[in-house]
Amino acid sequence: MGLFHFDRNLEQTLAPITLIRGGSSRGFYFEGRNVPLPGQGLEEFLLAVRGSPDPMGMDGLGGNTILQSKTAIVQPSTREGADVDYTFVQIFPDQPATVTYKMNCGNISAGVPVFALMKNMIPGVRDGRLTVRAYSTNTQKMMYMTLDVANGEALVDGQTAIGGVPGTGAEILVDFRDQGGGFTGRTFPTGNLVDTVVLSDGSKIDVTIVDMVNICGFFRAEDFGLGCTGLELPSPTGAVLTPPGMLARLTELRLKIAQLIGWNQYTIDTIGKATLPFAVSVAAPATYTDLDGHEVKAEAVDVVARFYLESIMHSAAPGSGSTCLAAAAAIPGTVPNQALRDGALKAGKGGSLTLGHPSGTFALKTSPILGADRTAATFSELSFPRTARIICDGTVYIKVNRPSEQTAWTVADDLDAASYFLRGEDISVQR
What average pLDDT does this structure show over 388-393? Predict the structure, then answer.
């Protein structure tokens, strides 16, 4: 905390801060040397920066949505093979003073190399394409962000457009290739490419369960019964309306998936309030009309997917779940792979995968490394495009004497932390 100062009356602490829009989120970025350690004042500091516990953050930098209440702490790494260490902290604006370290964020991750370059954390940078290796302290996994650099800084202008952000920018590829097994220790937690779930009515459904950035159980829509097609759309509230009986059947399936991976804390009543695991229907490429009334053509997608969590259908495709789907689809024999049309992707040779979701499409790149045991597959690339831009670099002022109710904080429970994926990783269209 060597760069902290005080105002002349010793009433406020002055701290260096950078605001960066990463993907469709905006975050507070700090150098690790300039902030307290977790559990030693960091949480109180971050809440003061935002202005918590006020939901609007009026007496701080604010951000009344979860997309605007994020923090990245970055510092040069001493780990072999890493350029920087990166800690992500999510602040919950709708809860009194709650934070979590349990998740990562693809959007804010896109801003990490931009910040690291700006602060000269990476020596010997040359103009051109650069891959920054970031060690995530949250997941204890490596991440790789590739971007274009000139004069030692990240380029801003480009032709990449992403949902939720007006205009275009320079592409930053966020690569989660090493994120397998973050929740369970294995990319395929059950050790199988496909498991068969038996529901209470005696029907059997094949599922592929994958732990890659997120936990998803994939099933074929056409095999689910009830007339499910995989082209269904959610209501404006996300309610699962069609086909009749779908929600109850999904809830039972999600409970069975949780039990297969050893998550036995859920019951049929509580699984409906939990975000993880996702249940994801997949279907072969088909033409449908999305929530905006635009036609998504079969030839424009490789697979159609619908993500179910809590008691709703996601209105788009969460970035974490989409990465998990891309990983599963890249491995021959899985349920998502079986839904692909014939070609390099289905053969396990990787490439670009475009999924169709209720709000449009989302493209990712995959490059699997397959061996005799396909459940042990790894990846040399598992990426999706983002953009990022520095908005402000300066000083934040924090009152030294804050009331006790403004300094207390709590760590989000597992349910709230998991729900971050629903609200914080949306891939949607700017409306």
Answer: 97
Please report, as a single letter, which amino acid is at residue 285.
P
Band of the pLDDT at 224, cuts 50, 70, 90?
very high
CA 90-96-98 angle, 5° bins: 30
Q: Which residue has the tokens 């804390």?
A: 265
Cβ contacts of 314 within 8 Å, gap of 6 or more: 234, 238, 306, 307, 308, 321, 357, 358, 422, 426
DSSP state of 321: H
55 burial via Cβ count (<10 Å: 0-12, 13-18, 19+): middle
Helix (H, G, I), strand (E, B) or coil at 246: helix
The Cα 240–Cα 170 span in angstroms is 37
Strands 172-175 and 295-296: unpaired
Q: Which residues pair with 216 in a beta bridge?
A: 210, 278
Q: Give, in order, the Cα–Cα distances in Å from 172 to each of 77, 155, 206, 257.
A: 21, 10, 36, 34
Contact 193, 187 (CB under 8 A): no
pLDDT at 415 > cutoff 50: no
Instruction: Assess whether pLDDT exceeds 80 at residue 16.
Output: yes
- Using the structure block, give the residue that is written with the tokens 């995968």: 353
pLDDT for 406 equals 55
pLDDT value of position 7: 86
Q: pTM score, two decimals?
A: 0.84
What is the rounded CA–CA span in Å between residue 151 and residue 22?
21
The rounded mean pLDDT for the chain is 89
